[in-house]
Amino acid sequence: MPTTPPALRPHDRVAIVCPARKVSHDELAAAIAVLESWDLEVVLGETVAAEHHQFAGPDEVRIRDFQRQLDDPSIRAILCARGGYGTPRIIDHLDFSRFAEQPKWIAGFSDITTLNCHLLALGHESIHGVMPLLFNQPGGELALESLRRALFGEPVSYTAPAHALNRLGTAEGELIGGNLSLLQTLSGTPSDCPTAGRILFLEDIDEYLYNVDRMMVHLDRSGKLRDLAGLVVGHFTNPQDNAIPFGQTSYEIIDSYARKYQFPVAYNFPVGHEPENMALICGRRARLVVTEAGTRLEYAGSAVARTL
User: Fold this and answer.
1) Does domain 13-155 correspond to CATH entry 3.40.50.10740?
2) Which CATH class is domain 158-299?
3) CB of 50 closer than 8 Å to CB of 78
4) Which residues of the chain have pLDDT under 50?
5) Does the annotation mark 302 as catalytic?
6) Catalytic one among 110, 146, 191, 250?
7) Which Gene3D superfamilies match (predicted)?
């Protein structure tokens, strides 16, 4: 069973770092104010405001900054400022040995799916949730509160309305997943994770419909759908199509593969590149219930209290 990092407490130090795309100090001002309102001390990594083309500094700078936060025992959580692209370039150069001795929460989504999966492969929970760049987005209040609750070890559970493509049923298993294109990128690498007996969640943005189909073909052919306990499908934001239409929506594409199996499936779940991006604890054992009335996802247990 994956280890659970200790819950945050008031006055803990949390770091904001940029393992992928660059971000400015001004873009993080709202997030810093929010975190300080949670009685947390914010530490900005050297990658904040660093630039190297689209990245937050060269690979070696992003590696050094993330490693420093991993190894610093005074840092109780690492929040990835934004996604974009870049985390797969540095993941194999990070040393998680000291982190394993004193785990801490690492949170993010999109490109940060790399870290979510890598940490689970190493046996640690992490948070797939809204990132500091998006803390002030309109309509994101519930997502932000869900992140706070996850970080501070408060109970979290979520519901979603019924969807025509849902398959009814109940499933239990560790939660795994994230951005579909990143899951494809990580396949066959040390960051890849088995899916058998687990609840898989998927989301993506700006993908061509034929590419969604191609990635689902790969998931299916590689056996990652066959033994799932359950499937949760979040936002597939801003889908792209060719001049000759593909002929199916993202959800219809996913359904064409999921229907080959018997596990419960929930569509239109509030996770992904939309303001309603609820914090999901990767590696935490969860219970998925899909009924005619809608979907409920809840966790067993809560974050570990830290001793003085």
Assistant:
1) yes
2) alpha beta
3) no
4) 302-308
5) no
6) 110
7) Class I glutamine amidotransferase-like (3.40.50.10740), LD-carboxypeptidase A C-terminal domain-like (3.50.30.60)
